[in-house]
Amino acid sequence: MIKEGILVKLKSGGPTMTVKFESELAEGLWVCNWFAGDQLNEATFSEDQLDPL
């Protein structure tokens, strides 16, 4: 189950991300943050794409 504050990874691989909040655009879309070096990144992913850690 995806919820705010948990750590996730994409099922296809990639960095560990923190779930920030559920998007207001549609149910089941989650805004996630992760670092690439010193740069903070943010993107929105569907719940189907995410694997809780």
Task: Describe what you observe in this structure.
The protein has 53 residues and is mainly β. 0% of the residues lie in helices and 55% in strands. The protein has strands spanning 7-10, 17-22, 29-36, 39-46, 50-52. Strands 4-3-2-1-5 form a five-stranded antiparallel sheet, with no helix packed on it. The mean pLDDT is 97.
Short description:
With 53 residues, this protein is mostly beta strands. The chain has no helices and five strands.
What is the β-strand count? 5
Q: Tell me the strand order in the biggest sheet.
A: 4-3-2-1-5
Give the DSSP E fraction (strand runs of 2 or more residues): over 45%
Low-confidence spans: pLDDT under 50, at least 5 residues?
Answer: none
| Structural class computed from helices and strand pairing | mainly beta
User: SSE order in H/E notation?
Assistant: EEEEE
Work out the count of structural domains: 1
